[in-house]
Structures are given as C-alpha cells and as structure tokens.
Write a structure and sequence with these properties.
five-stranded mixed beta barrel, alpha+beta, 414 residues
C-alpha cells in the first residue's frame, strides 16, 4: 500500500490556479469536520497530519472580513460579491433607488438660479450707484457750503483791507510832497559850490509808505478787478520812486570827490592849461593842441584832491620850458621850450600858451547832468501828466480817485 501511495502523480497547483500569482500560496482547503455540541462555540476543524507523500503548502492568509478570499488573479462570478463567499458575513441590504429627475425640472432650476443671480447683481450695482451718488451729493453740498463761507470771509477781509489801503494811499500822496523841497535844496547847494550833505541824508531816510507788503496784508483778492488793477499800478509807481530815490542819493554821494575838485579849481584864479605847438615849414606850418602837465593829487580814502598851483598868463616869471602831454589823462610828458622870437616853427619845437580867459569851462556839465536827469524822472513819477495824448500816471493823478473807491468799499462794513 505504501508503494502505491508513493506512486501517485503529484498535483501541479500553479497550473490549476492559472499561473496568475507566482510565489503567492493558495489557500488550504478546509477539511470537513463536525460541529461541536456547543452551538455557541467555535467550529472545530480537524487538521490532517502531514504525510511525507503530500505536498505541503504555506498557510493561507484570511481576509479581515472573515470570509473566504478568492484565489489571487481570479475574479468572482458576476453577481457574486466578495462577501457572499463567506457564509457567515452579514447580508448586504438593498438601498432604494432615488427617483430620476426629469430634464425639465433641471432646466427650471438652472433658469431660476440664473434669474436670481441677475437680480442679485442688479441689486448690488444699484446699491453701489446710490452710494456713489449720495457721496457726490454730500461732497457737493460741503464744497458749496465751504466755498460760500470762504467767500464771505474773503469779502469781510477785503472790506477791512480797503480801509487800511485808503489810509496808505493818502499817506503816500502826502509823503511824496517831501521830495520837492529836497530836490530844490540839492540844486541850490550844487549851484553855490557846496556839497548837499543834509539833503543826501534826507534822501536815505525817505521811505515810501506804500509797497507790496501793504497789498499782502490787505488781501486785495476780494476787491473788484478794476480796483485791483489800480492798486497794482499805484504800488508800481511807489516802488519805482523808492528805487530812483536810492539811485539819486548814491549818485550824489559818489560824485562828491569830483565836485570838490571842480569847485577847488573854480575857487582859484584860472591858469594856463593848454598850449599850441607848431610843426612843418616852408609854407606848411601847422599847430597842435597840448596839455600842460601839473602834479595834481586826486581824492583818495576820503581825502580831498590837491591841485598844483596853475601858471598865470601874465606872470612875470613865466617858465621858459613846460612839461606837455598829448591828452588830459596821458602819463607820458615831453619838455618843450616857449616861443620867444624867430620864425615858426624853428629848428626845435616851441609852444605858445593859450590865454585861459578864452577857454570855456564846461567840466561841471558831466557831473551835474545825470543828477538833474534823475530828479526829473522822480518828479514825473510823483506828478504824472494829465495832458491829452501825453497822459502819464503819477502818484498824485492816481491817489485821489483810488482813495475814493477804497472809501466807498470800506463804508460797506457800517
């Protein structure tokens, strides 16, 4: 019997399982057994003892559900789930199927949702527009209310400023009257060969009461346009007088050394300043004008100029030779002999003095002329000109009508 058993053919499990899972052991079929007397106890399955003739297989791994797992690579038959392989697994409960929703109902739901979304968008848009309009209306009311308040404040300030401007205009019209006496004193002093020290000091102290600071403090922005234009003209005239007054004072101050030098020359008896030298010969004799060179010291560092005494024409000791120069400011001089007798020009240069009584002295004109012209310009700015076709604005022509208009505006506060 033992030989017969050993000659039984071996079973190829891999071929039987379809060779689907190489190396994966197949579950060991459970052996039939008897149920114990105790129905609640576990099922006892007798295990046959291994025999040397049988092929041993590794123990199968049961799934966690407690059912019998199908072999790896073999799907359960249709309609048979994995749980049905286990007779002790809980039976699946059939769930009732939901009633199908018709396409019409779905369409209505979508349409209603889109209408709701459109209404919500319109409502949001309307709320935003209302908010923006409300904010704009609020800002507009605030702007107009603030602008009205600002205009009222500016009008009140303009009325108060008109009162101050009227006083400043009248003060300026009175102030310019102080210039004419100063100008007359300057003219009188220069004519009498006296430097106008006091008059220059008065010019330096003189100040026009109307300027740009006066307009800034008065807030002229609230005044009528024509009044503003007249005020700007008035302040221009006032500041131009102030600037030209400074120029006049500086001009007289810088000319002081020249005035003193000229007056010193006038104080002394006129002397010989020019001579004539002769050149040529044989019917072609000509004369040239030369300057006599004197050692004068110009004014410097506040010191007055010093003049060398001039040679008098009728002097008994008239020099026989003089230092002559071609121009008044030339530094180079030549010694020339005075003509005594003989033919002219003679073998050597000779000079003949010119009588100073025959020379007109106009040296003071370049000094006085700029000063007189500057005073004439200031006088025009003060007086102006009302002549037809020759109108020229001035402080006096503009002050009276401007003050009258400012007075009319300032009376509005009462």
């Amino acid at each position: 019997m033992a030989e017969e058993k050993s000659k039984k053919p071996k079973i190829d499990l891999k071929a039987r399982l379809g060779k689907t899972a190489a190396g994966v052991p197949a579950p060991t079929p459970s052996m039939p057994g008897t149920r114990p007397s105790d129905p609640g106890g576990p099922l006892q399955v007798p295990v046959a003892s291994p025999s040397v003739d049988r092929i041993s297989a590794p123990p199968s791994v049961r799934p966690s559900t407690g059912g019998i797992a199908p072999p790896v690579g073999i799907a359960p038959p249709p309609g048979l789930g994995a749980g049905m392989l286990n007779p002790f697994a809980p039976k699946p409960v059939a769930q009732p199927k939901a009633a199908p929703v018709s396409a019409e109902a779905q369409t209505i739901k979508v349409e209603v949702s889109e209408e709701l979304n459109d209404e919500r968008k319109k409502a949001r848009r309307f709320a935003i527009i209302v908010g923006v309009l409300g904010a704009a209306v609020g800002l507009g009311i605030g702007f107009f209310a603030g602008g009205s308040r600002e205009r009222q404040v500016r009008a009140a300030n303009a009325i108060r400023g008109a009162d101050k401007l009227e006083l400043a205009v009248n003060d300026t019209a009175k102030k310019v009257d102080e210039l004419e006496p100063i100008f007359k004193d300057i003219e009188s002093s220069l004519k009498n060969k006296k430097y106008p020290t006091d008059q220059v000091a008065k010019l330096n102290d003189f100040t026009m009461p109307f300027n740009t600071a006066t307009l800034k403090e008065a807030n002229i922005g609230g005044l009528p346009a024509d009044v503003q234009s007249k005020l700007l003209l008035f302040v221009r005239l006032s500041e131009e007088i102030q600037d030209k007054k400074k120029d006049l004072a500086n001009m007289i101050g810088f000319a002081k050394p020249r005035f003193e030098e000229m007056w010193a020359k006038w104080a002394e008896k006129p002397g010989v300043e020019f001579v004539v030298t002769f050149t040529g010969g044989e019917g072609k004799v000509g004369g040239e004008l030369w300057f006599v060179k004197y050692d004068d010291t110009p004014a410097k560092d506040g010191q007055p100029a010093k003049r060398q005494p001039r040679i008098q024409m009728d002097a008994k000791d008239f020099p026989t030779e003089l230092q002559l120069k071609r121009t008044a400011n030339a530094s180079e001089a030549f010694k020339v002999a005075r003509y005594a007798k003989g033919e002219l020009p003679g073998a050597n240069p000779q000079f003949v003095p010119i009588d100073p009584k025959t020379i007109p002295f106009n040296d003071d004109e370049p000094i006085h002329l700029p000063i007189m012209q500057k005073m004439a310009e200031i006088r025009m700015l003060v007086a102006g000109n009302d002549a037809v076709n020759f109108e020229k604005p001035g402080i006096r022509t503009e002050a009276e009508p401007l003050a009258a208009e400012l007075s009319k505006i300032s009376l509005a506060k009462q």
